[in-house]
Amino acid sequence: MTQAGIRPKIGITMGDPTGIGPEILVGALASGQLEQECHPIAIGRSKVLRAAASTMRAEIDIESFDSCQQAIDASLQRNGKRDRTLFCVETGLAEADLATEPRIDARGGQAAYDCLIAGTQLCLDGTLDAIVTAPLHKKALQLAGHDWPGHTELLAHLCGTHESAMMLYLPPCNLKPTNTEETTNQAEPSMKPHRGGPAGLGVVHVTLHMALRDVFANLTIPAISEKIDLAHAYFSRLRKAMHLVDEHGSTYPRIAVAALNPHGGEHGRFGDEEIRIIEPAVRLAKERGIRVEGPLPVDTLMPKAVRGEYDAVVAMYHDQGHIALKLLDMYEAVNITLGLPIIRTSVAHGTAHDIAWQGIAKSGGMTQAMLAAARLARSRD
Question: Is 342 helix (H, G, I), strand (E, B) or coil?
Fold first, then answer.
């Protein structure tokens, strides 16, 4: 638990060094928005991060340590001084230092894996208060001998939990960074008039990293119920921490469940999953006292959610949720893993090999992910 007023200790994994992870990590730290919010500790290869700082033209010093506690002690001694120093826990194999060509590379997959294993364990043993992960490449991870679909599934395994979910989250506009003097390729300010209510907007996914043909077999009443419960628990805590109440004095969030088929299935005309699976899950959630509606056609549901009528949307599959939220603000969206015993956030994009190591990567999403992790750590029960 992190006491109010104490800056939490946040670990940031380097991710796959062949992608933009190292660049957005140093870009976020060089932005000047984090010194007063947390003690950021990088988990990765200092040589790669120094190369990324040079590529990004980021005015930041990088100090390397053999243990996380040494890095934390050094950060505590600086006490938030604005000298732009990044403290790095040297992690993984030295061969990762050579894996900076923007392509799928087993060395990059192994580096991302090593950083994630180390960061997760440091959170589980209480050394760190939260972990923020830079992107990994699923194929590179597989080539390195680790056959996991992505961060979410691997983290659930490492933490020993069977109930977890990916949530893409957009913080409310009034929590966006206000520093306008950045020179590290931050995302442009959003021009959208709305992006959710006062608690922001989250999209929780029932199924995630799988072929579309496999979605139907994995949509079950228990699976949907679990994701509704996770969304309810997260936004209940968030609304309580933000002192948000409705006209009836309730802090309970409003949750909408998306339909699977076009037009919500049209009463079985375009598929019966809504009738057989989704409606029963929603009904059971209502019986548990959760404020939930659905199944609702996603094309009309999302505009309502954007206007603030719902705190969270439960999407049936990956692209149904991802496309809708990323159209609002891809570079400010945060990936939060629900259901873990640790706090984990990430950016809402991948390794971006097409722009990696060119100094043009936008680090606004990483900044938001770190701010979100710090807020979650400070408000955790």
Answer: coil
Instruction: Please report, for the chain, the start and end positions of each structural domain, with discontinuous segments joined by +.
Output: 9-161+346-379, 201-320
Alpha-carbon dihedral angle through residues 300, 303, 307, 313, given to the nearest 10 degrees = 80
Q: Residue range 1-26: average pLDDT?
A: 87
3-state secondary structure (DSSP) of residue 35: coil
Count of residues in the chain: 381
Crossing angle of helices 221-241 and 279-287, rounded to 10°: 50
End-to-end CA distance of the chain: 7
107/237: higher pLDDT: 107
Residue 357 has a pLDDT of: 97
Domains 9-161+346-379 and 201-320 share a fold: yes
Which among 372, 373, 358 has a CA at the least distance from the CA of 27? 358
Q: Which fold has domain 9-161+346-379?
A: Isopropylmalate Dehydrogenase (3.40.718)
Under DSSP, the state recorded for 95 is G
The DSSP-derived string for 47-69 is HHHHHHHHHHT---EEEEESSHH
- Please state which CATH class domain 201-320 belongs to: alpha beta
Residues 6+ apart with CB under 8 A from 303: none
Q: How far is CA 76 from CA 10, 120, 247, 373, in A?
A: 12, 21, 43, 18
Burial environment of residue 165 by CB neighbours within 10 A (0 to 12, 13 to 18, 19 or more) = buried
pLDDT tens per residue, range 143-191: 999 999 889 899 999 999 988 899 999 988 755 543 333 333 444 444 4
| 46 membership: H or E segment, kind and range | helix 46-56
For residue 96, give the DSSP letter. G
